[in-house]
Write a sequence for this structure.
């Protein structure tokens, strides 16, 4: 009446069985290729970068003849006032961009979670579409808008508010405005991702308990969205701190920030060791700020959990 | 803790011996042994955490036991990987492949085995017929009702004709009404096809309806394996008695090989000392009276179909559940009535050591 | 929006204020692109607003400029290469991270993330230097591999999170239904991962095409990608050609968005 399975031997070709053995080991094998690539293309170059920043290299006939450890480059960089102003400017720009993006971006995320399906869809389209266009295209748009004969000036002139075109282009303000608009989606998306994950029942429950809308926002939504704020801020900060295109285009050739300085050192003056040190300083300061953001976010998340 | 019937002279299909399994210092399966014969339906019954699902997963091969052996048709399964074991698993969530149609889902094992197209189509067709799902071939799992999904899951394992069917709480996802009909249907189907099956559940009614034998599990051990009747009439331990069917427990002292029951009757026993006496609710009766050896007050009564269930608190403070046929005579009872309690048939009481 | 009674007038103002900022931001997101689009049809040769006339000549001129067309082709190549590499390297890595039973699973996923956390320019510089030391000069291939390393983490993370949300019972069922590990992977896991892989592919392609921070140090002199060409064009001329190119990109972006929205749904892209 019953029969045992007649065909237990699977008809698999040798190739498949080999892959099977590799994959079924549940081990690290599938990841090995990417690990190898990462080590050779990222880790090792990075170590080399480090070493370049700290060594005095003499080259003779196109080959490295000697390499001595030196902190000269580092010391020069840290004591150079130009470095100080440049980094301060970068930091300033990055922090202001992050804060402004937060101020403008958070309401959009709030609108997203209280909005209906149509609202949500529009917000997603408007936020994701810019990310699919090149940074240069988005920066160029501001060139058009803020330029001497750009939108702003023409309109203001037309309306008679001003008599001469304002010089907005090539100033710190132009760069800031451009940065904020360009990085806005990067702040909004993580916020939406985190905030929509939370139960909308929580919001309803809070309102049922009599909290006003603002009250709900303050006591419930804000704390719960702190991981999103953290992620968004970290991303926007990193991008605006290390961005090269926007200051270059909107700030004119004279606007020097850390990224443009590195570019100049590496590509134009070919002072590679200097470039290396600058990059390292850039990276470390960036990481420091990220760590601060992480700590603050962590603190707020814990506070949020208590509020629950 | 071994308890199995050796009625059949043929070897058991599934033999589990002294299986032990721990998860991080937690002993989940403790020396489990059970034999399952051909065409038998056995249910592993117990509360959550008793190890029943773990045992099922060991049989299927998703987990490896630390110790003990699992044989199917006499063959040791310890080195046999999941996809070579002659078992078919029906998951609690059915685990239907969402990106494949009903037809493709059922065809899947045959496809993996490389069965030739004509034979495969034939078998799928037959099995669709068996579970009454002909016409649903092109639908996707998301377009099916709970009951239909369950049937696809069953069809999917039937098509590869496994030696043993393993079903992990297959009725959990269905609503109550559907559950009872499906339970009866499924049992009939399995019997008609002559399959061997192991069910896992925490629902005692399900176990009693579906199984030829029930294995009651508790904290990793199998307490008793017997037919539903035997489990009900002759539970081996107080735990089993309590688990299957309602029961009342009384404490009594053995004097001279006899127990004096609260209503005055006596019961002979070999036990000594203080023991537990289990009385089923239908084995107790009440009368309106202010006298008698065993008195109490009705706290609460309710009607269930042809029966009445009384909750009575005795003078000594014990709480009893009593069930009686709903006849005219029961109409005179009400909450607060003083009653006298009697054990109808002392021989049917079961004694357990304390 | 749900209609709710406001507990006080000031509260209503507060909420409307927030909505106001939101609307402003949304317009801010889209207005610049719209303006550029409008300008790209302008007949005048300089950047100004409001536009005069309507012409498609700038678009035509774009296709005449060989370096722009070549730049586009190069960028497309980089985009595809990066995407293919990320899939080939990233999907197995995600599998190892999510399904692996060895001790370093979290360490592995963090390790893959590191190149993405480092500023792009630092990575670019590092690769440039190392390349120079071993004699590898910047080229379209160096650019591709450097961007791959940069964005690999995104692919890994997208696939990994989908993998973790996949019901393990599905793969167990497949195994019970006679599938070997490889068959299981091929017929069950990968098909169900497709949306995540596609979402990751969209991002890696865009990054491969548009990336400047890493590319600026590693791109080949003869195989310049489009963003680099554009950079030169924008900096040294004020030609409306850039407006036309922007117009093309904006339209392409909208098309891509429609494709994505209809195939895998917008919310899936937002990891």
């Amino acid at each position: 009446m019953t029969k045992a399975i007649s065909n237990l031997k699977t008809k698999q070709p040798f190739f498949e069985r080999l892959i099977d053995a590799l994959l079924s080991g549940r081990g690290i094998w599938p990841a090995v290729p990417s690990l190898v690539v990462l080590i050779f293309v990222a880790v090792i170059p990075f170590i080399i970068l480090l070493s370049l920043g700290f060594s005095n290299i003499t080259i003779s006939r196109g080959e490295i003849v000697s390499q001595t450890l030196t902190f000269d480059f580092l010391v020069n960089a840290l004591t150079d006032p130009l470095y100080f102003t440049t980094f301060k400017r970068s930091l300033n720009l990055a922090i202001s961009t992050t804060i402004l993006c937060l101020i403008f971006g958070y309401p959009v995320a709030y609108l997203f979670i209280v909005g209906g399906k149509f609202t949500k869809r529009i917000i997603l389209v408007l936020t994701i579409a810019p990310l699919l266009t090149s940074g240069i295209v988005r920066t160029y748009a501001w060139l058009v808008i803020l330029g001497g004969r750009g939108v702003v000036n023409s309109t203001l002139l037309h309306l008679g508010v001003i008599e001469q075109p304002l010089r907005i282009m090539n100033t710190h303000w132009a760069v800031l405005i451009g940065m904020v608009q360009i990085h806005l989606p990067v702040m909004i998306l993580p916020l939406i991702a985190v905030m929509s994950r939370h139960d909308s029942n929580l919001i309803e429950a809070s309102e049922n308990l009599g909290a006003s809308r603002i009250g709900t926002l303050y006591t419930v939504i804000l704390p719960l969205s702190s991981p999103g704020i953290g992620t968004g801020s970290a991303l926007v900060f990193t991008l605006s701190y290390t961005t090269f295109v926007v200051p270059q285009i909107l700030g004119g050739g004279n606007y020097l920030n850390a990224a443009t300085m590195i570019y100049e050192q590496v590509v134009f003056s070919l002072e590679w060791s200097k470039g290396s040190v600058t990059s390292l300083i850039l990276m470390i300061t960036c990481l420091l700020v990220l760590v601060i953001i992480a700590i603050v976010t962590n603190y707020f998340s814990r506070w949020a959990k208590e509020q629950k | 803790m071994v308890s199995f019937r050796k009625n059949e002279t043929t070897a058991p299909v599934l033999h589990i011996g002294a299986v032990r399994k721990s998860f991080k210092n937690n002993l989940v399966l403790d020396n489990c042994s059970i034999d399952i014969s051909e065409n038998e339906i056995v249910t592993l019954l117990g509360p959550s955490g008793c190890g029943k699902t773990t045992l099922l997963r060991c049989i299927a091969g998703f987990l490896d036991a630390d110790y003990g052996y699992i044989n199917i048709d006499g063959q040791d399964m310890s080195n046999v990987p999941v996809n070579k074991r002659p078992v078919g698993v029906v998951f609690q969530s059915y685990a239907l492949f969402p990106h494949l149609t009903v037809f493709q889902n059922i065809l899947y094992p045959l496809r993996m085995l490389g069965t030739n197209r004509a034979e495969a189509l034939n078998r799928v067709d037959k099995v669709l017929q068996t579970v009454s799902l002909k016409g649903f071939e092109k639908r996707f799992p998301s377009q099916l009702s709970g009951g239909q999904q369950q049937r696809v899951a069953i069809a999917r394992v039937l098509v590869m004709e496994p030696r043993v069917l393993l079903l992990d709480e297959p009725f959990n996802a269905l609503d109550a009404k559907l559950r009872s009909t499906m339970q009866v249907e499924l049992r009939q189907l399995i019997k008609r096809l002559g399959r061997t099956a192991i069910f896992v559940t925490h629902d005692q009614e399900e176990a009693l309806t579906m199984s030829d034998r029930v294995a009651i599990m508790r904290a990793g051990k199998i307490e008793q394996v017997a037919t539903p009747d035997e489990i009900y009439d002759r539970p081996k331990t107080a735990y089993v008695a309590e688990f299957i069917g309602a029961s009342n427990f009384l404490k009594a002292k053995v004097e001279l090989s006899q127990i004096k029951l609260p209503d005055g009757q006596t019961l002979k026993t070999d036990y000594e000392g203080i023991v537990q006496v289990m009385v089923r609710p239908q084995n107790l009766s009440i009368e309106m009276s202010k006298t008698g050896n065993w008195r109490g007050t009705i706290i609460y009564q309710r009607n269930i179909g042809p029966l009445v269930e009384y909750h009575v608190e005795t003078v000594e403070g014990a709480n009893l559940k009593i069930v009686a046929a709903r006849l005219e005579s029961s109409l005179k009872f009400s909450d607060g009535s003083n009653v006298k309690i009697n054990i109808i048939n002392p021989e049917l009481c079961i004694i357990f050591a304390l | 929006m749900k209609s709710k009674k406001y507990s006080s007038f000031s509260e209503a103002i507060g909420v409307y204020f927030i909505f106001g900022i939101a609307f402003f931001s949304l317009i801010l997101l889209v207005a610049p692109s719209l303006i550029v689009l409008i300008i790209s049809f302008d007949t005048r040769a300089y950047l100004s607003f409001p536009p005069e006339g309507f012409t498609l000549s700038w678009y035509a001129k774009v296709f005449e400029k060989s370096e722009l067309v070549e730049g586009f082709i190069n960028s497309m190549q980089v985009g595809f290469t990066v995407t293919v590499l990320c899939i080939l390297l990233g999907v197995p890595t995600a599998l190892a991270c999510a399904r692996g039973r060895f001790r370093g699973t979290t360490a592995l996923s963090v390790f893959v993330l590191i190149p993405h956390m480092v500023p792009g320019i630092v990575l670019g510089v590092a690769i440039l230097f190392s390349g120079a030391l071993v004699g590898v000069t910047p080229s379209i291939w160096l650019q591709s591999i450097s961007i791959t390393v940069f964005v690999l983490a995104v692919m890994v993370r997208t696939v990994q999170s989908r993998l973790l949300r996949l019901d393990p019972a599905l793969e167990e069922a497949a195994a019970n239904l006679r599938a070997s590990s490889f068959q299981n992977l091929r017929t069950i896991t990968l098909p169900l991962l497709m949306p995540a892989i596609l979402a990751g592919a969209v991002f890696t392609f865009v990054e491969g095409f548009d990336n400047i921070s890493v590319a600026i140090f590693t791109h080949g002199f003869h195989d310049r990608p489009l963003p680099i060409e554009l950079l030169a064009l924008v900096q040294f001329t004020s030609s409306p050609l850039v407006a036309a190119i922007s117009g093309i990109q904006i339209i392409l972006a909208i098309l891509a968005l429609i494709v994505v929205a209809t195939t895998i749904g917008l919310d899936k892209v937002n990891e």
Observations:
- Chain B is about 25% helix and 35% strand.
- Residues 176-193 of chain B form the longest helix (18 residues).
- Chain B has two domains: 14-237, 248-353.
